[in-house]
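Structure representation:
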Amino acid sequence: MDLGEKIKNLRIKNNISQEDLANGIGVSRQTISKWENNTVLPDSYNISSLCEFFKVNSNYFFNNVEEVTDKEVDNNSSKKVWIIQIAILVLGIGLLAYSIISIIIHHDYYNSMEFKASSGTSSARIPFEYFLIVVGTIIVLADLYSVIKYVNNNKNK
């Protein structure tokens, strides 16, 4: 299917006249007719206007694909967002689990560690795993916050 046929099919499918389409994107009715007859091709600005008017992705006009709507593009983006969110959550939980298990396993070792400060007093060394617990907690909480915010923003879509 060529570009003109795609424009015409979208117009007919949406029950729109050439005049209505022309008014909707700011060109003349004759221009729409020329596009549909492949006498003239729309420029990139007009392709963008057509995509916006019909709520389709530009792939619909340039590739041999069926109609790709903005909703389908949004669904693909949503899937990618969820995959990233899950990966971040797994990372945070993994850090927390590693740190907690490491502290439990090496509890006696960490309790016996002391070092001399410059003033001559001794104090317990803070294990690196405690730092990882803080980082893991921040990652998990930030990710959960972004998931909740994302769900609330997309609840009505």
Summary: The mean pLDDT is 79. The chain is about 70% helix and 5% strand. The radius of gyration is 30 Å.
